[in-house]
Amino acid sequence: MNSLQNKKIKQLVVLAFFCAIIILQNIIPFLGYIPLGPLNLTLIHITVIVAAFVLGPLAGAIIGGAWGLITFIRAFVWPTSPLATIVFVNPFVAILPRIMIGVVSGWIFSWLKNCSLKPLAAMMISAIMGSLTNTLLVLGQIYLFYRNQSQILYQINTQALLPYLLTVIGTNGIPEAVAAAIIAPAVSLALLKNRHNQINN
């Protein structure tokens, strides 16, 4: 087995490892979601961001897509919140934002590294952008697709829906982004250092 094949196998193993973590975070309460009323404080995006940092944007997109697919399926069989049964049955809301976490965070990280920014700073900025991508795409699409049903979904009128979603960005989106900026770089740097040591040994 040549070194290229060996590298590909290792990458597939690590990719499978991240997929397993995503599955566990969706199954075990409070490991991936912290319920807060009709929405949830999400932690799973951190795993997607770490995958994007360690394996690249494509792998991040795959891991994000796996999370999105699970979100979509769970909306039918085991929803995480009452709102999930309505909005996450839409694949654009359930899957697309999760994929874009990996794409955005991984691409920005690669770009910032090429700009000679230190890895820690590059990861922190990229993690924030990836996290906010998820928040803005999910809530933006909820507003786009469901604003005419806001009285049913949120018990608020259409005019009050946008301020409500902006409040959610502040109460959920910002803490999620801060958590990602702290946790994702710490985990990613440790994984990258370990992989570097294995290559050199």
Automatic annotation (TrEMBL):
Record-linked Gene3D superfamilies: 1.10.1760.20
GO molecular function: transmembrane transporter activity
InterPro entries assigned to the protein according to its UniProt record, in alphabetical order: ECF_trnsprt_substrate-spec
Keyword terms, alphabetized: Membrane, Transmembrane, Transmembrane helix
Pfam families the UniProt entry points to: ECF_trnsprt (PF12822)
Regions crossing the membrane: 12-36, 42-70, 82-109, 121-146
Protein name listed in UniProt: Integral membrane protein
Source organism of this protein record: Liquorilactobacillus vini DSM 20605
